[in-house]
Amino acid sequence: MRSRVDSGSRTPVSVPGDGPADGGAARAGDQPDSGFDLGDRSWGSRLIVGSGGFPSLEAMERALTASGAEIVTVALRRVDPGARGSALEVIDRLGLFALPNTAGCYTARDAVRTAHLAREVFETDWIKLEVIGDDRTLFPDAVELVGAAEILVDEGFTVLPYTNDDPILARRLEDVGCSAVMPLGSPIGSGMGIRNPYNVQIIVERATVPVILDAGIGTASDAALAMELGCDGVLLSSSVARAKDPERMALAMRRAVEAGYGARRAGRIPRKLHAEASTPGEGIPELG
Amino acid sequence: MIVALNGRRAELPDGATVADAVKEAGVDGDGRGVAVAVDGEVIRKVEWGKTKLEGEQKVEVVHAVQGG
Fold first, then answer.
1. In chain B, whose CA is at the least distance from the CA of A120?
2. Residues of chain B with pLDDT under 70
3. Residues A89 and A131: beta-carbon distance below 8 Å
4. Could you tell me the CATH number of the domain that includes residue A138?
5. Fewest CB atoms less than 10 Å from the CB: which of A142, A178, A189, A268?
């Protein structure tokens, strides 16, 4: 329990998401309506969607279209001669940008090598850098992550690291030249939302690169909260792909990101413990 | 010679190149959207036809799949 919440106080209660309207807007890449700069490009959508976990390629295509996303994450795996259809063909047909990830890598060495392979496959030097510590939590291994980021930045990659909700680690990643920081809300695929909004708020406050909330989003309100906290974007996958109706959830996420961003820009009212009438107290007729 | 091709033992003729291994892995066409690593090092596509393999090498042939 935070000490500022005491029953007799009329002091506004400060909680994550209560920041000033310009708290996120002052940072790089902001524009009046929507859209932001990431890497060396401008994007109209602040929602990035993963391509994994969909029941079919057809379901993925419908959901990607509904999401309005321009960036879609993809992975690399051994070729499977028996595989039907290709995620990349769908992404190409929709005119979206395929952002390769290094999912499944446990060491900096493997992540760097996977990034090299991705550069060959996708003809891009953008990489969503994931270096995980174990398969139960899928939490990033901070030491390996920073090591891989440093190497890839030096090699000219645009590095977008999936990271812990740790403000110091986020700073370290920014210091080595990452183009964004992407803190998790909660474990990948858990749908637990944002478990430490305070840390996300601290990361946002001091970041000079875009902050993209990555992992843990369960439903639309989680995505809206991420944006209200001042994040520049949201990256989600399972919450759409594994929803009962992925297309409908994709549209909900699109609206949630837009709504959360709008609310952040508008500047919410401070929270107060007690009521504050919105109807004037003066001029009330005496009727007794 | 025997190489480890995508985690499986594969027999290739002596003098086989990376391009041969890619074909053996089941890739048709020009290899667009495919990348290869030999013992962890990426072999660029332009080098596939002239890079000879040696026995016991680990050859990984990868492509894009759905992923978050």
1. B35
2. none
3. no
4. 3.20.20.70
5. A268
